[in-house]
Design goal:
Strand order of the largest sheet: 2-3-1-4
CATH topology: Alpha-Beta Plaits
GO molecular function: monooxygenase activity
Protein name: Heme-degrading monooxygenase HmoA
Largest sheet: 4 strands, antiparallel
Order of helices and strands: EHEEHHE
Strand content: 25-35%
Pfam family, one: ABM
Organism: Paenibacillus cellulosilyticus
Shape: globular
InterPro entries: ABM_dom, Dimeric_a/b-barrel, Jasmonate_Hydroxylase-like
Length: about 110
């Protein structure tokens, strides 16, 4: 089974979350799993791809959404807000969030 998200034909949207973590887990792993589970149940969610953190602690997660409204609704979800606030106060030394419109994609599989 592929770890790549199965997305529809464009256009759709990608939210790219790049982060550097602070030391220690402090509940991060449990919350990250919960956020993927919760996001997956949201209207307009299309999929998610996440990399392992590199040796410098950089991690990248890309979630895919049908619309900007779906992204906005996810951003405002009450439990997601708790995760955002805890991320700022506890889990991340810094992060960057980018929202992009996907206008073209291609796929290769051997």
């Amino acid at each position: 089974m592929s770890k790549m998200a199965q997305t529809p034909q464009p256009p759709y949207y990608a939210v790219i979350f790049t982060s550097e973590r602070t030391e220690g887990d402090r509940g991060y792993g449990t919350m990250a799993d919960k956020m993927v589970e919760l996001a997956s149940a949201q209207p307009g969610f299309l999929g998610v791809e996440s990399s392992s953190r590199d040796e410098d602690g950089l991690g990248i997660t890309v979630s895919y959404w049908e619309s900007l409204d779906a992204i906005k609704n996810w951003k405002e979800h009450s439990l997601h807000r708790v995760a955002q606030d805890t991320g700022k106060s506890t889990w991340y030394s810094r992060y960057r969030l980018r929202v992009c419109k996907v206008e073209r994609d291609s796929f290769f599989e051997m």
